[in-house]
UniProtKB/TrEMBL annotation:
<dbReference type="GO" id="GO:0005737">
    <property type="term" value="C:cytoplasm"/>
</dbReference>
<dbReference type="GO" id="GO:0019379">
    <property type="term" value="P:sulfate assimilation, phosphoadenylyl sulfate reduction by phosphoadenylyl-sulfate reductase (thioredoxin)"/>
</dbReference>
<comment type="similarity">
    <text>Belongs to the PAPS reductase family. CysH subfamily.</text>
</comment>
<protein>
    <recommendedName>
        <fullName>Phosphoadenosine phosphosulphate reductase domain-containing protein</fullName>
    </recommendedName>
</protein>
<comment type="pathway">
    <text>Sulfur metabolism; hydrogen sulfide biosynthesis; sulfite from sulfate.</text>
</comment>
<dbReference type="InterPro" id="IPR004511">
    <property type="entry name" value="PAPS/APS_Rdtase"/>
</dbReference>
<dbReference type="InterPro" id="IPR014729">
    <property type="entry name" value="Rossmann-like_a/b/a_fold"/>
</dbReference>
<dbReference type="Pfam" id="PF01507">
    <property type="entry name" value="PAPS_reduct"/>
</dbReference>
<feature type="domain" description="Phosphoadenosine phosphosulphate reductase">
    <location>
        <begin position="50"/>
        <end position="221"/>
    </location>
</feature>
<keyword id="KW-0560">Oxidoreductase</keyword>
<dbReference type="GO" id="GO:0004604">
    <property type="term" value="F:phosphoadenylyl-sulfate reductase (thioredoxin) activity"/>
</dbReference>
<dbReference type="InterPro" id="IPR011800">
    <property type="entry name" value="PAPS_reductase_CysH"/>
</dbReference>
<dbReference type="InterPro" id="IPR002500">
    <property type="entry name" value="PAPS_reduct_dom"/>
</dbReference>
Length: 260
């Protein structure tokens, strides 16, 4: 810890919830000066019922690799399978399982095993006809969190990704009370790429084909030289964030209104 670092107040292990605003502020002041590895080490020590939510993007993969070197029992992974991921993404999931041996809990839209199941229930191209409902249905985070009593998650978000993430803090509390740890909040894309190459971390093969941020195949495009790393996500739309990190209650309300 550097000489200018904030001192962490006396806290219980694990943290008692709900977390007060003053404790959250003190924790963020302390974590902001730490390295991603140190933030992760703190998270493993202090955060209750900790899991890592990941779509196996580069930053999430860095966190997975770092955790594998910090602890022999890293937090289990939660993968929200929208049913519309690229084949290369599903291949990467298997590569990560083999490399790290960490448990991967897979959650799909309720009652659906395949994209065909989903479309028979909700119609084809729901992401075009009702994007809010699509996001609410295909990213069943709350169901996953309730199934395992998840209280805290590690994410791969970074402030350098801009838009809603520009003011990202190391630790956040969402509208449901869930704690979100963002260990690489201060890293840029170049640092993430450097770590991936330096440590030979498994990565999505699509990244060698002009993609930089990979989501569902229908909302992900290649990125031109000089473009922002997330420019290929929801290109041409005002949307900048996946349903996983949107306000859950807002999405639920929108989906309910659309169903009327």
């Amino acid at each position: 810890m550097s000489p200018t670092s904030q001192q962490l107040p006396e806290l219980s292990k694990p943290l008692q919830l709900p977390l007060s605003e003053s404790d959250l502020s003190s924790i963020n002041a302390y974590l902001s000066s730490l390295t991603p590895e140190e933030i992760l080490k703190w998270g493993v020590e202090y955060l209750p019922n900790l899991y890592q939510t990941t779509a196996f993007g580069l930053t999430g993969l860095v966190a997975i690799d770092m955790l594998s070197k910090l602890t022999s029992s890293p937090p289990p992974l939660i993968f929200l399978d929208t049913l519309y991921h690229f084949a290369e993404t599903y291949e990467l999931v298997e590569d990560v399982k083999k490399r790290y041996g960490v448990p991967v809990r897979v959650f799909k839209p309720e009652g659906c095993e395949t994209a065909k199941d989903f479309e028979e229930t909700y119609g084809s191209k729901l992401w075009e006809t009702d994007e809010a409902k699509y996001d609410y249905l295909v990213e069943p985070a709350r169901r996953a969190y309730e199934a395992f009593n998840v209280k805290s998650v590690i994410t791969g978000r970074r402030a350098s990704q801009g838009a809603a993430r520009a003011s990202l803090q190391p630790l956040e509390v969402d509208s449901t009370g869930l704690l979100k740890l963002n260990p690489l909040f201060a890293w840029n894309f170049s640092l993430v790429e450097w770590y991936i190459k330096e440590n030979n971390v498994p990565r999505n093969k699509l990244l060698d084909q002009g993609y930089r941020s990979v989501g569902d195949w229908h909302s992900t495009t290649k990125v031109a030289e000089g473009q922002d790393e997330r420019a290929g996500r929801w290109a041409g739309k005002e949307k900048t964030e996946c349903g996983l990190h949107e306000d859950y209650f807002k999405m639920k309300a929108q989906a309910k209104v659309a169903a009327q």
